[in-house]
Amino acid sequence: MVNGSSPRVRFCPSPTGNPHVGLVRTALFNWAFARHNEGSLVFRIEDTDAARDSEESYQQLLDSMRWLGFDWNEGPEIGGPHAPYRQSQRMDIYRDVAEKLKAGGYAYDCYCTAEELDARRDAARAAGKPSGYDGNCRQLTAAQVEAYEAEGRSHIVRFRMPDVPQTFTDLVRGELTFQPENVPDYGIVRANGAPLYTLVNPVDDALMEITHVLRGEDLLSSTPRQLALYAALTELGIAKATPVFGHLPYVMGEGNKKLSKRDPEASLNLYRERGFLPEGLLNYLSLLGWSIAEDRDIFSIEEMVAAFDIADVNANPARFDLKKAEHINAEHIRRLDVKDFTEACGPWLRAPYANWAPEAFDADKFAEIAPHAQTRVTVLSDITANVDFLFLDEPVQDDASWAKAMKEGSDALLATARAGLAGAEWNAEALKSAVLAAGEAHGLKLGKAQAPVRVAVTGRTVGLPLFESMEILGREKTLARVDAALAKLTA
Ligand code: GLU
Ligand code: ZN
Description:
Elements: E1 8-11, H1 21-36, E2 40-43, H2 55-68, H3 91-103, E3 107-110, H4 114-126, H5 142-150, E4 156-159, E5 166-170, E6 174-178, E7 186-189, H6 197-207, E8 212-216, H7 223-235, E9 244-248, E10 251-252, H8 268-274, H9 278-286, H10 301-307, E11 318-319, H11 322-335, H12 338-344, H13 363-374, H14 382-391, H15 399-405, H16 410-423, H17 428-441, H18 446-458, H19 466-473, H20 475-490
Parallel strand pairs: 1-2, 8-9, 10-11
Antiparallel strand pairs: 3-4, 4-7, 5-6
Helix pairs in contact: 1-10, 6-7, 9-11, 13-14, 13-19, 16-17, 16-20, 17-18, 17-19
The structure holds glutamic acid and zinc ion.
Zinc ion binds at residues 110-112, 136-137.
């Protein structure tokens, strides 16, 4: 509840391209706001730009929202009292509202050509005057309109901005005032009759009775326009109340530049493919402009919802920090039940990630190794390379690892170790003692003695705890791999 009533927020992406982290942060803050305040989240698809919107992107949006664990009270798939929730299916509504705005004198037909607009803008700039639309068509006479029509000119519909400052209190940034010369009359319907974002977005917010608009700071400049349009819609009896606005801070990427949806690290799919847990990613993204408490970075989504207050969002730009995102994700992996961890690894244990034959996979062996992996991987996709030694016929060939571990004398060390291992009881502790003893015989500490054994058995210099790995791989395969390495060294 906010001031005793149930708030209504919306998440209204356009289905263009792949979902990106900025979009997810906006969805998260709206969702958390709705859940914290026992309000409603309206999911609306802003697909009025046929040239840029795609069905594939729409499906991806839905799939991403589900994967992240979001739910909504109204929107695609579930409908609701303000259906339809895809703007492409609401065109009649916008046409009707545009007509009413014109009839009420809130909007007018503008016949200026692009060339005329450019020329007048350049002239205004040169004269040091405001360079926005100059109001040329605000008061066209019937004769002027007729003349333009006779010339065969087309027209757009322009909204008439009031000639007074627009002031509002932003939930994040406090009181803001926009001067009229900076917010000129603006287009709401294209020459071909297609309604623009500038019209459809506030119209739907009005019709869907949205009470709080929480969105990115990049949209701040459209807010004074939308407030003026809202006032017109209220006078026309279309809007019941004007929402309050809160603009979420910019997210900065590499080199302190705004993270763009085209930056690879902005792509949600990348995080999914790398095996971020939804809760890990959301935990991290919630910190872009908000914090739960000082010195506290790791929390569950339930804890976030319980604590979330838009008044705590910081207006300063947030910095996207991949290392921190990974660290937080790793912590969420550690928190899983081992059973859930095992299950979550599933996709990375199959093609196209896994490099072993599907029938070589052994679920029991994986269950044995999983607890060792769970305390070490950062993202779930790390699992593949960590366990492939168990399921490949031969360990991967990693030349760099081989060169690093196999030094002069490694053959002698391996031969001694092989003898010790062959006679050892097959458990991690005994295997460790055998390698330790082999190292001592050659004047090597455990770390140094272990390296060639690890590369022989797993193919890599880094990996899960070696002796547990060998125990799980089994005597026969382990010894065969040490033999193969010895053969290669002495060839
Ligand atoms: N469809 C708009 C966008 O994707 C929504 C903007 C808003 O939240 O008002 O940017
Ligand atoms: Zn004009």
